[in-house]
Structures are given as C-alpha cells and as structure tokens.
Amino acid sequence: MDFDKIPYRYVDSVSFSVFSTEELLRQGVLEVTCAETFDIVGHPTKGGLHDALLGPSDRDEVCATCGLGFTHCPGHIGYIRMPLLVFNPVFVRTLYQLVRGSCLACHRLRSPPVACQVTLAQLQVLQYGAVAAVQELQDIANEILASDDDRAKHRGAIGSTLQRRI
C-alpha cells in the first residue's frame, strides 16, 4: 500500500455531548430488556446486550439493522429503561465538584467575582476560536492579582484589561 497516495485530512476539532432522553429514544434501535447476554449455546439473546439489531458481534455476521458486515457496520444505539434516576459514573466526579462548589442556600456556584470575569472572558474568546488566548487571559489575570492583594480594587482593572485584550 502506498501511503503517499492515501487522501487525508487534519482534524480541526472534536466535541462530545450526551444524548437527552428524547434523543436516545428517537435514535435507539432496541430497548435492552433481557438480562441474559448469551443463550446456552453461546448465541446472542434477543433483547440482550449483543442483540443483532445493535450490530454484528462476530466477523461472519451481518447487522440486522443496516445489513452491513462486521467491518462496515458502525453499530447502533440501544438503551435500558431505569425505574429510578441513575447517575452516569463518568460524570460523578464533576457532579461532586459542582455540588461542593455550590451555595446550598441560593444554589449558585461559589466563585470569586474575579474568577467569574476571567472565565467569562475566556468563554468569549473561545467563541471566536482563539484557543491560545484562553491561557493568555489567565496569565494576565494572575499578574494583576499578584501585583497587589486588594482584589476588590483590581476587579475593575481585570475586567477592563480582559475586555481590551478580547
């Protein structure tokens, strides 16, 4: 294979998101209802985690949803209905940090105004695709805060400096 002639593209960006319940139900091809994954002979059970509707699980199988083989089938979404609210274990640490940083009385994040200004400015530059400027804004804010301990006096200075740099 001649790798010099293979077309390629650079990846500009990648983003991930979580499906809402409605999106998941709309895109899902199978509700997983069977607790058994394989039957006695070792074949995938209908309604189980390896149901043929979710994609082929062996090289010589064909997908029951799209009809493609093991190599070309992208796989399909299945879902399990839960009787109670369940937290995704991937998000538990982030959720814990958000709860720890929240005020139990007003339910807002407990964050110094200076940090809010810096974060807001960073989000604004990210909207324009200026990823490198995010760290630069943090460095500017750190310099201003390090120059004197009177943070209240510098709140306006940080805001105006960040706005000028944006």
Automatic annotation (TrEMBL):
<dbReference type="GO" id="GO:0006351">
    <property type="term" value="P:DNA-templated transcription"/>
</dbReference>
<keyword id="KW-0804">Transcription</keyword>
<dbReference type="InterPro" id="IPR007080">
    <property type="entry name" value="RNA_pol_Rpb1_1"/>
</dbReference>
<protein>
    <recommendedName>
        <fullName>DNA-directed RNA polymerase</fullName>
        <ecNumber>2.7.7.6</ecNumber>
    </recommendedName>
</protein>
<dbReference type="GO" id="GO:0003677">
    <property type="term" value="F:DNA binding"/>
</dbReference>
<dbReference type="Pfam" id="PF04997">
    <property type="entry name" value="RNA_pol_Rpb1_1"/>
</dbReference>
<keyword id="KW-0808">Transferase</keyword>
<keyword id="KW-0548">Nucleotidyltransferase</keyword>
<comment type="similarity">
    <text>Belongs to the RNA polymerase beta' chain family.</text>
</comment>
<dbReference type="GO" id="GO:0005736">
    <property type="term" value="C:RNA polymerase I complex"/>
</dbReference>
<dbReference type="InterPro" id="IPR045867">
    <property type="entry name" value="DNA-dir_RpoC_beta_prime"/>
</dbReference>
<keyword id="KW-0240">DNA-directed RNA polymerase</keyword>
<dbReference type="InterPro" id="IPR044893">
    <property type="entry name" value="RNA_pol_Rpb1_clamp_domain"/>
</dbReference>
<feature type="domain" description="RNA polymerase Rpb1">
    <location>
        <begin position="10"/>
        <end position="119"/>
    </location>
</feature>
<dbReference type="GO" id="GO:0003899">
    <property type="term" value="F:DNA-directed RNA polymerase activity"/>
</dbReference>
